[in-house]
C-alpha cells in the first residue's frame, strides 16, 4: 500500500517533496486535480465533489492513508470526508488535513498575534481562527485573501509576485504580527522570498507536516507498517499542461514522471 498526497495543483508537489525527504523509502502516490484548479474560488459542494472523486481514485489505487495538502479542501471537505465518506466506504483508511498540524505548530511556538494568507475560500471559512481560539482564546489572527497568488505560481508569474505580495502582506504587518502563516501549500514556493522581503517568521507547511506525520506514525504504527517501502513515486494529474510539468519538475527536484489520469 501507499501514502497518498492530494492537492489541487503545484503546492502539493512541494509537500510531497518534503514528505519524501522525511521518509525516503515509502511508496507514495501524488494526485493533483489540476483540471479544477483553483479550488479556492469554488463552492463548498463543488470542492467536496472534486475531493471525493479524487479520494475514490487514490483509495482504489491502494493508498492506505491520504494527506490532503489542499488547505481549501481541508477547510471545506475534510470533516465530511472523515465522518461520513470514510465510515461508509473505507473505515480502515485515513484522510488527514494540513490545517490542524499547522495550528498545533503555531501554538507550540507560543505565537499570540498571527497573520494568515490564503485562498478566498480558506479565509472565508475562518477555520484557522476558530481552531486556534478553541485552544487559546487569547490568540489574535489577522487574515488576508490572496486570490492572485495561485494563478501566478501556476503560470510562472514570478515577475509580478513582489508587487502582489506587498499589497497583501503590508497591511498585515501594520498589525504587529509575530509570524505569517502560509495557508496554502502553493505558497511554500514563496516562503524564502517572504522571509527575506519582510523579515518575519513564516510558518510553512512543508516544514511542519512531515514532522507531524512522523508523530502520527509513531502513534499509529499499524498504519505505517501497511505502507510499502520500495521508494516508489507515482505522480498523477487530472490535466497535464506544459506549465504544470515544468513547475513540478522544478519543485520536486527529481526525475518526476507525470501521468495524466481521467477521474
How would you characterize this protein structure?
The chain is α/β, with parallel strands linked by helices. The protein has two domains: 2-97 and 208-260, Rossmann fold (3-Layer(aba) Sandwich); 99-205, Rossmann fold (3-Layer(aba) Sandwich), CATH 3.40.50.1860. Helix content is 49%, strand content 18%. The protein has a six-stranded parallel sheet, with helices on both faces. A four-stranded parallel sheet has the order 6-5-7-8, sandwiched between helices. β1, α1 and β2 (28-32) form a beta-alpha-beta unit. The radius of gyration is 17 Å and the shape is globular.
Q: Largest sheet, described in full?
A: 6 strands, parallel
Ranges where pLDDT stays below 50 over 5 or more residues in a row are none
Estimated share of beta-strand residues:
15-25%
CATH class of the largest domain: Alpha Beta
Structural class, by secondary structure, is alpha/beta
State the CATH architecture of the largest domain: 3-Layer(aba) Sandwich
- Put simply, the count of helices is 13
Strand order of the largest sheet: 4-3-1-2-9-10
- What name does CATH use for the topology of the largest domain? Rossmann fold
Task: Return the string of H and E elements.
Answer: EHEHEHHEHEHHEHHEHEHHEHE
Amino acid at each position: 500500500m501507499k501514502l497518498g498526497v492530494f492537492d489541487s495543483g503545484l503546492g502539493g508537489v512541494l509537500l510531497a517533496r518534503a514528505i519524501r525527504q522525511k521518509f525516503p523509502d515509502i511508496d507514495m502516490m501524488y494526485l493533483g486535480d489540476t483540471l479544477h484548479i483553483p479550488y479556492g474560488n469554488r463552492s463548498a459542494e463543488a470542492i467536496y465533489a472534486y475531493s471525493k472523486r479524487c479520494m475514490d481514485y487514490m483509495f482504489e489505487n491502494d493508498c492506505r492513508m491520504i494527506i490532503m495538502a489542499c488547505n481549501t479542501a481541508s477547510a471545506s471537505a475534510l470533516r465530511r470526508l472523515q465522518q461520513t465518506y470514510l465510515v461508509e466506504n473505507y473505515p480502515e483508511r485515513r484522510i488527514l488535513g494540513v490545517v490542524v498540524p499547522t495550528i498545533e505548530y503555531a501554538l507550540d511556538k507560543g505565537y499570540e498575534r498571527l497573520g494568515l494568507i490564503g485562498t478566498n475560500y480558506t479565509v472565508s471559512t475562518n477555520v484557522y481562527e476558530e481552531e486556534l481560539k478553541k485552544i487559546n482564546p487569547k490568540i489574535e489572527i489577522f487574515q488576508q485573501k490572496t486570490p492572485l497568488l495561485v494563478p501566478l505560481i501556476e503560470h510562472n508569474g514570478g515577475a509580478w509576485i513582489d508587487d502582489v505580495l506587498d499589497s497583501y502582506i503590508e497591511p498585515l504587518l501594520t498589525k504587529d504580527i509575530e509570524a505569517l502563516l502560509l495557508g496554502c501549500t502553493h505558497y511554500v514556493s514563496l516562503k524564502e522570498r517572504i522571509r527575506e522581503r519582510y523579515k518575519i517568521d513564516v510558518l510553512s507547511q512543508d516544514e511542519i507536516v512531515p514532522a507531524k506525520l512522523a508523530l502520527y506514525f509513531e502513534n499509529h504504527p499499524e498504519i505505517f507498517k501497511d505502507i510499502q517501502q520500495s521508494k516508489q513515486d507515482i505522480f498523477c494529474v487530472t490535466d497535464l499542461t506544459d506549465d504544470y510539468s515544468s513547475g513540478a519538475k522544478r519543485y520536486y527536484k527529481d526525475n518526476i514522471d507525470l501521468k495524466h489520469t481521467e477521474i
